[in-house]
Amino acid sequence: YSLFFYIYYVFFSKERVVVLLADAGFIIEKDVTSRLLRRFLKYAYGILSLRDIPELRKMKSRIEIMSGIVTNDVPEVKSHRTPGTVLLSGSLGLTTGLLLALEFFSSQQRLKLIITGIPFLMSETEFRGLLEKYRCDSIEFLGALEYSEYVDVLQSVEFSLNLRNPDDLEHNYNFPSKILEYMSYRIIVVSSLRYPELPDDIYYNTKYSASGLNDCFEEILSSCSAERESLAKNASDFVRNNFSEDVLRSKISRLLM
Length: 257
Prior knowledge:
By secondary structure, this protein is α/β, with parallel strands linked by helices. The protein has helices at residues 2-12, 32-41, 54-59, 98-105, 124-133, 147-156, 178-184, 210-222, 225-242, 245-256, and strands spanning 18-21, 46-49, 63-65, 85-92, 112-119, 139-143, 159-162, 188-191, 204-205.
C-alpha cells in the first residue's frame, strides 16, 4: 500500500515526497522488486536515511542522514550500576550475534550477560534450544519485557552489545537504533561494526569472535571507572546533541526547501 501511495503522490499529485529509508538492503539486491524500488526512489524529492550509503548518493543528491532519535524524556541515569553486566537486546538471531554471545559469556566469571527480546529468523524451538544448551549462572534471559521493565534494565547494566556479523552485507545498509538508546542511558557500547555516523572514540570496537570479545573486554576492564564513565558521558552527550527531535526537524526542513 505504501508503494501505491508513493506512486500516486509522486506521479499524479506531483507532491514533494520525502522518503524515510530505514533499511536500504534493496540497493544491492537483484530481484525484480528491489530493481523497481531503486527506480522509483530516484523520483523522490528527498531521502532521509538512517545510513550514509555511497550507492544512495549516486542515485540522489537531496539526502539527509539521521540514524535515529533520542528523546528528551530519558529518565535520570542511576549512578550505581551492577558491575560486569552486559546487555544483548532486540532481535535475537545468528546474524545479530546471539550464538557468539552465548558461547563467549558461558565461559565468563567476571561478566554476566542479560538477554531481552525475541527470536529473529529462527523458530521458538531453535531459540529455546540454544538458551538451554548454554544455560549457566553467567547468562540470564528475561524475554520480551514491558517498557517500564526494559527501562529498569537499561538503568542497571554497565555494558551493551551490538554484534553484527561483518560478513553479512545487509548490515552495511541499516543502522541499529538501539546503539543510540544505549548511549543515551550512558551504557558503554561494544560493537563488531564501525559506524561512520558515530565518532570512533565513544564506543568500543570488537572483532566478531569469542577471542575478539575477550580482548575487547580485557581492555575495558583494565581501564579505571573514571575513564569508562567519561566515555559513557561523552557518548550520551553526542547522541543527545546530534539525534534530537530538533535536529530531525531541521533536516526535514532542509529536505523540503
